[in-house]
Amino acid sequence: MAQAPATPRTRRAALRAAAALSPALALRLGPQPSEVAALAARARGLAPPPSPDVVFLLPLVGRHHVTDWGAVSARLARTIESFRRQTSPRWRALICGQDAPEGLPRDGRVRFLPFARPVEGNDKWAKLAALARALPEAGVMRGYAMPFDADDLLAPHVVQEMTEGRARGGYLVTRGYVLDAAEGLWAEARPQSLTEPGQKAFWKLCGSCAAFGFDLRGGDDDAALIGAFTAHEHRMFPYLARLAGRPLHPLARPSALYIVNHGENFGARRGRTGFKTRFVRRFPLSPDATARARAAFAIA
């Protein structure tokens, strides 16, 4: 299962304009499956969840794809620990992979789902689809589902901000940190401004960036919707959410940590992390800001 292609920007604008008039009109423009699912969601609507939980969906690389399985398991354990350090306990985590990771905590909120389907190449997208289908197994009927890479970290305030804010469509990480593990340099990713034209919002750099609202009480349509959304690159997430009539609300503070150049990034294997390394070098944090970021994410 390959990653679904991104819709060209001009076509996105046309679909949004048509959908504002009528979802049926937008369907006449020949949208791709994720957009069809978004338009169906727009037609059925979504109310803010009254008492939401957050479900993290983590695709885990197979042991056969990596050189150091112990290091992969250790990074996943650190990711799960960032969930356990949340100021709100209202979260669940579903992990999907071929091999059960080592060192997972004994926490009823964490569940491993075996993945046995043979897939050529990068199977991340197939695992995300399986995680979306398994969303009902998390035991949460209304809340937010957040795809999350198994080597990224979440800031401690995020679950509480989402569960107390109860934004109807969900949430978007616009500000976060990028750590170049090879060089030990930190940067903050934030929306571009006139004074920082080269800056980038966090969601443009990292897939652990969006929490989508869902309601499964009437069936699994929203689980299928999240599966359709996560078949794309993360830069499509805000567009698809708006097309569904479920815009994502920006989180208030730096909310996630994206670690690059740690040795097993799939992006590096595809030659896609060089510009992120350059980004960190261009926007490095000061020593004091780096110390605060390290403390926030419990990085020694």
In short:
The protein is α/β, with parallel strands linked by helices. It contains eleven helices and eleven strands.
Kindly describe this structure.
By secondary structure, the protein is of the alpha/beta class. The chain is 34% helix and 18% strand. The chain contains eleven helices and eleven strands. It has helices spanning 9-21, 23-27, 33-44, 69-84, 124-133, 158-165, 221-229, 237-243, 266-269, 274-282, 287-296; strands spanning 53-59, 91-97, 110-114, 142-147, 153-154, 170-172, 176-180, 185-189, 210-215, 249-250, 256-260.
Give the SSE order as H and E letters: HHHEHEEHEEHEEEEHHEEHHH
Low-pLDDT stretches are none
Q: Mind describing the biggest β-sheet?
A: 7 strands, mixed
Q: Helix segment count?
A: 11
Q: What structural category characterises the helix and strand content?
A: alpha/beta
The CATH first-level class of the largest domain comes to Alpha Beta
Which architecture of the largest domain per CATH?
A: Alpha-Beta Complex
Q: Assess the beta-strand content as a share of residues.
A: 15-25%
Q: What is the domain total for the residues?
A: 2
CATH topology of the largest domain: Spore Coat Polysaccharide Biosynthesis Protein SpsA, Chain A
Overall mean confidence score, pLDDT: 94
Largest sheet strand order: 3-2-1-4-9-6-10
Overall strand count:
11
SSE diagram, text form:
Blueprint: H1 9-21, H2 23-27, H3 33-44, E1 53-59, H4 69-84, E2 91-97, E3 110-114, H5 124-133, E4 142-147, E5 153-154, H6 158-165, E6 170-172, E7 176-180, E8 185-189, E9 210-215, H7 221-229, H8 237-243, E10 249-250, E11 256-260, H9 266-269, H10 274-282, H11 287-296
Helix pairs in contact: 3-7, 5-7
